[in-house]
Amino acid sequence: MAxxxxxxxxxxxxxxxxxxxxxxxxxxxxxxxxxxxxxxxLYNYISTKEDLLTAVIRIPTERIVREAGVIAASDETSxxxxxxxxxxxxxxxxxxxxxxxxxxxxxxxxxLAEDWHERDREYIRxxxxxxxxxxxDGTFRxxxxxxxxxxxxxxxxxxxxxxxxxxxxxxxxxxxQQISDTVLGGLCVPRRLKTxxxxxxxxxxxxxxxxxxxxxxxxxEKAALKEIAGERAMNDSGH
Length: 239
Hints:
Blueprint: H1 6-21, H2 28-34, H3 49-72, H4 78-95, H5 97-106, H6 113-136, H7 146-158, H8 160-163, H9 172-187, H10 191-238
Helix pairs in contact: 1-2, 1-3, 1-5, 3-4, 3-5, 3-6, 4-5, 4-6, 4-7, 4-9, 6-7
């Protein structure tokens, strides 16, 4: 009987072979060879090659949806949440590159696509919710469409599996920073405008305070004049 802990090795091997060869061209022999097993031994774990594809794509999808939910429900600012979501998304690609690449490149062409669409929709809803909150609280421009913003962020992260090598000249931390700055730079209210808005608000508050003081002074002066007028009336009546 196969050792239980070999399952993780088998799934990791499947992820690597599926990424390198494509699901359609990959063979169970290759997957078994990578972990020093015979093809027949794989059937202690699976019934079909599709079972391995399901196991491979479950890992990145469940992780990203679970952790995105935690981020969305946190008390961080909208900008911090978006940065955290980008860090999570790219972090998953870095940590389990083969798994993430297989999901992004193979799932749409497999018979399992519909089974996993709800996971995709759940993740998009979480990201879109964060984007919508950012529009409401003034972090993003009022013209930003939350769905478009969510898909742009997700697309920017997903496309990295097409061209980026995490071990290349642009490392993970630098890529996270650049993608975050690019996404937020296109969505956030410019800080210069925020500063100008704050200055205008401060000027308005200063003018309001001045007007209030003038009104108070006018009321005091009016009361004083009324008192003087009353005294004069009393004096005139005494004569």
